[in-house]
Amino acid sequence: MKRRPDVALMCNTANACFLPLLRAAGIPTVLNVDGIEWQRRKWGRGARGVHLLAEHLAAAWADRVVADARFIARYYRERHGVVPAQIAYGGDLPTPAGRALLDELGLKEGGYDLCVCRFEPENRPLTVVRAHRRLQHPFPLVMVGGAPYARRYQEALRREAGPQVRFAGFRFGNEYRQLLFHARAFLYAGEVGGTHPVLLEAMGAGRLVLYHDTPENRETVGDAGIPFGPGGMEALQTVWEELQTRPEWPRLYGTRARARVQKHFRWDRITDAYDDLLRQIAVAGP
User: Fold this and answer.
1) CA distances from 90 to 40, 197, 262 (A)
2) pLDDT for 170
């Protein structure tokens, strides 16, 4: 490193172990905690303990903690006595070029529903495919994502999926945006975390979002989507079935969703907020 950095920006409490080293080097730090990691069901008891310790380190050693949602900020105030800066993520994406992936997968614009996530328990993709299988007249469901470290869970997911489910694997960039911008509805069943970027991106693309009703998801979506829960599969199935009889929902809620992103979750405003915060911390020093 030729020049000592003015400030270090870190993401996720898992990296909090480096904070004492940066403090010793005289480098001020900003750490985005990225949700409440120890609550994720994929971790065993030992890993949860490590993440809980990392959370305490983040609160004690970072010069400033960043929370991406009011729910997370309140958690850190009440549990650790720190006042995080609150900066979310952006959800405005460029319009995709072409529709080649839709043709490849045999999909029609507005003729399928979409779920994008890591295939792990707290994101509940099993809930989504099980609810879809119980629908009377389902649209095709496209599942984007995976989890190379969770082979058994992925096998269970494919066993439970009905014939109208299409697993598209990981898709990025223009292919991801093609699927996102042309879906009828976006399904989000995650139960842990703060502001979820994929949920914001679906809203920014003007999609109707059906989302698991948690405080952080509700904070993100507001009145621009349809919540389901806490009944899990049955609750999602009920809302999904109602969508079949409400053809006005995609346009109505999609318009609301895009407007909400433009008002609260634009990337230019997010990056400006980080720039201001990093400059403040750099000037103040460790």
Assistant:
1) 24, 7, 9
2) 95
3-state secondary structure of 212: strand
DSSP code at position 84:
-
List every span in the chain annotated with CATH 3.40.50.2000.
Answer: 8-89+266-284, 100-264
**Residue segments in the chain with a per-residue pLDDT below the cut of 70:** 1-2, 231, 286
SS3 242: helix
CA-CA distance, 156 to 121, in Å (whole number)?
Answer: 11
Pick the CATH number of 8-89+266-284 from 1.20.120.10, 3.40.50.1370, 3.30.160.620, 3.40.50.2000: 3.40.50.2000
Residue keyed to tokens 């989890």: 147
Range 100-264 classified under CATH 3.30.470.10? no
pLDDT digits (tens, 9 = 90+) for 18-57: 999 999 999 999 999 988 777 777 777 887 888 888 899 9
pLDDT at 109: 96
> Cα separation of 31 and 64, whole Å?
7
Q: What is the DSSP code (8-state) at residue 149?
A: T
